[in-house]
Write a structure and sequence with these properties.
The chain has 718 residues and is mostly helical. Among the domains are: 110-453, no CATH class; 506-661, STAS domain (Transcription Regulator spoIIAA, 2-Layer Sandwich), CATH 3.30.750. The chain has 31 helices and 12 strands. The longest helix is centred in the middle third of the chain and has 30 residues, at 338-367. It is elongated, with a radius of gyration of 35 Å. Its main location: membrane. Residues 696-707 have a biased composition (Polar residues). This is Sulfate transporter 4.1, chloroplastic-like isoform X4. Keywords: Membrane, Sulfate transport, Symport, Transmembrane, Transmembrane helix, Transport.
Amino acid sequence: MEITSYASSSSRDLASIAAAADSVSSSYPSASSTTMPSSRPVKIIPLQHPSASAPSSSSSSGGGGGLFLRWKSKLKKMTWLDWVETFLPCSRWIRTYKWREYLQIDLLAGLTVGVMLVPQAMSYAKLAGLEPIYGLYSGFVPVFVYAIFGSSRQLAVGPVALVSLLVSNVLGGIVDSSDALYTELAILLALMVGILECIMGLLRLGWIMRFISHSVISGFTTASAIVIGLSQAKYFLGYSIVRSSKIVPLIKSIISGIDGFSWPPFVMGSVILAILLVMKHLGKTRKYLRFLRAAGPLTAVVVGTTFVKIFNPSSISLVGDIPQGLPTFSIPKEFGYVKSLIPTALLITGVAILESVGIAKALAAKNGYELDSNQELFGLGVANVCGAFFSAYPTTGSFSRSAVNHESGAKTGVSGIVTGIIMGCALLFMTPLFEYIPLCALAAIVISAVIGLVDYDEAIFLWRVDKKDFLLWTITFVATLFLGIEIGVLIGVGVSLAFVIHESANPHIAVLGRLPGTTVYRNKEQYPDAYTYNGIVIVRIDAPIYFANISYIKDRLREYELEVDRSTRRGPEVDRVYFVILEMAPVTYVDSSAVQALKDLYHEYTSRDIQLAISNPNRDVLLTLSKSGLVDLIGKDWCFVRVHDAVQVCLQHVQTIKETSKTTADPSPQEKPSLLQRLLRQHGEGLSIPELESGYQGQSISSTETDPQLEPLLSRKS
């Protein structure tokens, strides 16, 4: 059969091969140069070989120089309006604000979130070990600042339960919560978190957190929610319990202090908690009652305060005196503790990226506008930095309040400004009323909020879908519960990265077979009907090839060479593998270690009379292989665009090898002809491509069964 290559102008006839026989007699003939009698040519799509001096697309776009040039070009194109929008994202919605359409909706949403935030802020401050006033401060200045510098139009910023627990956990190990130093360190922590968020936003480092799996976050938040709920039990039980982020000390403390149990706070807290849960459920399940979800915390405070004012129970602890007025400007102090607070600041920053930026992106998608995660991170950082100068502790975006804000129809940051005004009014005029709020009511607000963080549905889903992710969820959950928040997160992240490294070092590799009646090659395990060819192994590598996984890839290739499944094989029957075809379409990157290993593999194959072929490498991979000399070593004629092209060429050589083995009855080493001589001897004896591919070598295939103008497909007889 004649093999017509459209890949290059280097096609030669047998005469030209014979002329070069003295120098290449021990090598395989070129894939584009063998001719055999047939009724039609074999079509081979050209593979474009980039020049060795051509720059790779990755280096021009992803490298350091390329990245700098891209940024430089972008900066040159930016107008003054683009600069304003970059530093003041609020200008985007201010310019297009529809006053008649948006104002009323934003006012209602801001009022709803504000009513929800006032009692929550005091509750979360108590969870953080601070006086309730600092929760109100944290819900005041940061809200205004974020409305200006934040890019999300629906994200509700302020104190949250998880960050409050982190603050309590780390500061409780440094100083007693009753000490003034405790408050100063909480404010300093807000400044540190803000600076870290600003730096990460400006340097566009938010991508680092992508390595933390969602399973880790879900397991961590579920365990944290349980710890938060148990830490609030002291306000229900009426006696103090140890401050800890581990479940065992909390349970021991609860059991050991049972003699101090008091019924009044337990009954009041339980009733208020039941009211909150019912209102929350009705607000979620009934659209016309969704206002109940936001009104729940306020209802809890009103019910508790009213009961205390009427009956004056002595056994129920109250919030007590709260300073009246707005926070004053002050510079954070106690910078000597910065070093010990860095791990917690990093952890809180990570929570901000994973939770706040995540929910901000989701809300942006639902409301039809784009959001830059790094710019969002910068906005959160500025809000924390400014808040630290007005006595706020670390803040971030809230799941529950953001959901309420979105459900209330908030269109722009005006809703955030309205929320800030509500907080300001509460600080100016309502703090005398807060004196009689029962602490068990604030605890009920916290517990009702964190119940939604117990993500058991995610655990059930992971068990059904991916046992590995379920294992990761379980490890993080258990480690956080029993070893503490910081250690739990570190273990979860470490195991997550270990899984990533393991998957990268042990990539998926598939043996491909041809789907009947097509020229498509797919994984044999996924498509059992796909068939392979005798003497040919087609392998697809589904990952970048680099130093960490090249040894695994080589080992698997050796296994595939030995493990031959003859039940679904077609074509000329030979006793071993003569060709290995690497399908490299999924390979996005090849490093120098992998190139050297591939060279070693080629020499190893050559010593066993096996030819290596490459199919469909992308431009950057092919350029790397060309620069390293691997393409020249293998031969450009053994690099193909499609797997099918490689199979057609290899099939012809397999047929030649089979016919040669029949006609040479074990000649002596001195008389053994070269492969080139065997090819010349078999000139005119080759089978047609449909016969080779189908495996029906002893039967003729009529012209009605094959169209000479089409690609060679499987014959109807097969």
